[in-house]
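User: Could you check the structure of this?
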Amino acid sequence: MARLSYHFGDTAWRVEAREALEAYGQMLSQEPRAFTTSLMVLEMLTRGPVELAFLGAPGDGRRALERAASEVFVPHLVIGYHDPAEGDIDLPLLAGKATVQDAPALYVCRDYACQRPVTRAEDVAAALAAPA
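Assistant: Sure, the predicted structure tokens are below.
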């Protein structure tokens, strides 16, 4: 629910995820190793995810950006894919984003505020290392 809340921009799901964690609060504090996934969700809710928006046709150019991003560990990712040639999409992460001069692009964002788009696979690691 936490990840989907960020993906769809639905804060109600975020509240539900928090409430689910609160239900286990005492047990979580007493036996944290038994609740590693819950702790990861808690961290995601606290820090927020890094959002990746891949724009472009699902061909070699976009695949190179995807491959480069997969080589960098970034916790709590929310990832969206869209080919603008298929029309508009109603997801907050992908709304208003486009390819760059018809080249596939990667937008690295936090709280839907994005860095300049990356179009070259060799620039992806630096973009993921920089705070969004």
